[in-house]
Specification:
The structure is a homotrimer. By secondary structure, chain A is an alpha/beta fold. The first copy, chain A, contains twelve helices and nine strands.
Chain lengths: 312, 312, 312
């Protein structure tokens, strides 16, 4: 069995080209399982996967849980209801305790950027970062990459536009890192107040107007506006945001005929994307979700599967 | 393998006589599994069942989860903790996302009447309504029917009294529809303020006093008074409610010797039913719960089992 | 198959010497499973285990869930989110309802002392007490006993010091009962306001100063200070508590060279125990967690396994 160069999946920055190829190839095989009448494979039978979502999540948690179960792993949900989980220091103690129960993988989502990295310094068990603060969301970037490839496009030289709140988006950051590494040309657009300072080093082209980017883009990734957080502070109003940076029939007029529209979900219909575009022929939003299960199956398999478990 | 005429179970109104017979016959076989030393059947191995309880529930969720697991399905709990689930429109997006993970059945409870119907218009995966607002609770009516039949009574011509808050009760509505369809004579009693307008069309006889209904009834279904909601608005006080519409040793004096007492739970002891009646010889309240698991196993099996899965 | 003299595990007080030996011997076999590549045994296949944590818990619930799953049981989580669970009377109804779904074991944690005992008077299904109020936490005492034995120490004549809030600690109470029964000499230390009146009857020696107890102790169990509850009422300040009853390099100076340090978790680092001691060579805190899974596997197996299930 081939394996990753890493025992943790903390960041796409850590992945080698070979790792990425192996993950995508494995995910492609895993995807087939979802279309069998019996969607079950014994590869992770007897493995224990802890799903530690210290930040609430419906979709990503369900995606990992389904991924684990389809490979016959035992999945255990851990959330942050207990008061002992309110501070960073005791979170490490909690996870060290959980590790003492001999799990085979720990999936972690946390609102603090860098928390999975901190844990990995003290935890020997494989850790998968399921989103940490505004830092990274590597499984999202991997499933996005898989989704683009499945449309038949080549990544080398591909123009990918990421539009919205780049500053706070771990999805944007992981995609910028991964797509740049794979040879795509990444463009970003959004309000100037939502642009981070690190973009230069990855050769990302910054646009302050979506009209200059739409006509060039082979792929457009719209980001979710987190209404509860930004409305007041970073731009004047949702209506204005939508008018300048929303994707709708008018802004789509200048897009390429075979452009691919993506969104990590959950969608704010009518804010960052118009319903007819989200549900339209260019949209691969639901394919992203389907591919997400396959990518997570692949990662769980590569990080905690063993030759022995394959024969079990 | 025989199958239902419907791919969704949204309402008992949609079920044909043949469907009902098939469900009951299948449930009866499923019931046997609960009494085996190894309470496990491989019929749904490799099937994914999503339990989407957007309204909180202890018993019904546990009943469905046990039902799925005893048939070897993978069950995934989804609740409404995420803020994205607060509005109807985004609920549809959430469920469409979940569907993209390729589940085989989605069980939905929601506080909005008609929500499972709305979802079924956009979702191809089998949906089971586990209670929607004040509209329907079809699995409860089916388990109630199974429970009556198991006492040896014939439904045709049976006098069934449903007592309490008929207006807000999805249990009452589903039972009225199902029992009327099966040929029973349904009577209802309760405060005039808690009587809905639709009763005439099903030939339901309305009583404003339980003394005229108790002596005739072969089966008495007591409904739960939702103290938190109705106390102030629909009747003067719980004490008065209990005095006029509660079932106790005094009101039971005129009941038939072989009357059957039912309650969907949770019971407000001393309000709608006296403890000695709830725990007495006529009560089949706990049988209802046992039969509930069997009915839900039957429905999951009929809606997402396949010939292939039976051999798995 | 040998079995326990009890069908419930409510209190260590109920366990015979033979029961304790059987649990420890079985746990030792179960522990091996955690180190297999496929950590799975079919002993409880087709068994349904309800995990009713009516008081929130991360670790103990996860420990029981992993224990059940490694033996192939179906585990169902039940928590107290529903309003029907707020009162003692309706809790009994809830659990009677759950019992009607034919589970094979019910694990109960509840904030009210004696609740599992009350339930056992009305429930036929095996019940395991996972902590009730300030009363008992028998699985913790059993895993602590297993942990001490695995260090190579003999229990007969062993000096065990339990330090902290003895009054409110169900861990302390269960350990005092179990260790005394096994022939250990138990010493306790803590603020006078946190000493319960029942200590005399078990021959426990009370110290008001840890300096008199540390040099004698073969095993030191530190208890968690529940900061949220006691800070104001039972002692002047956390700082003062820590100074008089905390374990740190200074207080450890007079300890035996081979002393064993235990803590049931979660640890308040720097309050009852200094980080360098919690993580130091004498500490077996994480071994306690590992052994906890094994003890819970043993109990689930002994209470609901059958000859038939072993062959399954």
């Amino acid at each position: 069995m081939k394996s990753l160069s890493q025992k943790y999946l903390l960041s796409v920055a850590d992945l080698s080209q070979k790792d990425i190829d192996l993950i995508l190839k494995t995910a492609s095989k895993m995807e087939d399982i979802a279309f069998h009448p019996v969607k079950k494979n014994a590869a992770l039978r007897g493995k224990t996967v802890l799903l530690c979502f210290f930040e609430s999540s419906t979709r990503t948690r369900a995606s990992f849980e389904i991924a684990g179960k389809r490979l016959s792993a035992d999945t255990i949900n851990i959330s942050s209801s207990g008061s002992s989980l309110s501070k960073g220091e005791s979170l490490l103690d909690t996870v060290k305790n959980l590790e003492a129960m001999k799990p085979d993988a720990i999936v972690v989502r946390h609102s603090v950027s860098g928390m999975p990295h901190l844990l990995s310094k003290h935890i020997d068990c494989p850790i998968i970062n399921a989103g940490d603060g505004t830092h990274e969301h590597p499984t999202q970037a991997l499933l996005d990459l898989m989704t683009i490839l499945k449309t038949g496009k080549k990544i080398k030289g591909l123009n990918v536009a990421i539009i919205g709140d780049i500053l706070h988006s771990r999805v944007a950051r992981s995609n910028i890192l991964l797509l740049s590494k794979m040879g795509a040309k990444v463009h970003v657009a959004g309000p100037a107040s939502l642009m981070p300072p690190f973009l230069d080093q990855y050769g990302v082209e910054v646009h302050h107007n979506i009209d200059t980017i739409i006509p060039k883009a082979d792929v457009i990734m719209m980001l979710r506006i987190q209404k509860e957080r930004q409305e007041e502070s970073f731009f004047p109003s949702l209506r204005e945001y939508s008018r300048f940076f929303g994707l709708n029939e008018k802004t789509m007029k200048h897009a390429k005929k075979d452009v691919v529209i993506m969104h990590p979900g959950p969608v704010n219909r009518g804010v960052e994307i118009a319903p007819e575009i989200a549900d339209g022929v260019h949209s691969v939003i639901l394919d992203q979700v389907t591919n997400g299960v396959a990518v997570r199956m692949a990662l769980l398999y590569l990080l905690c599967g063993t030759e022995v478990s394959l024969r079990a």
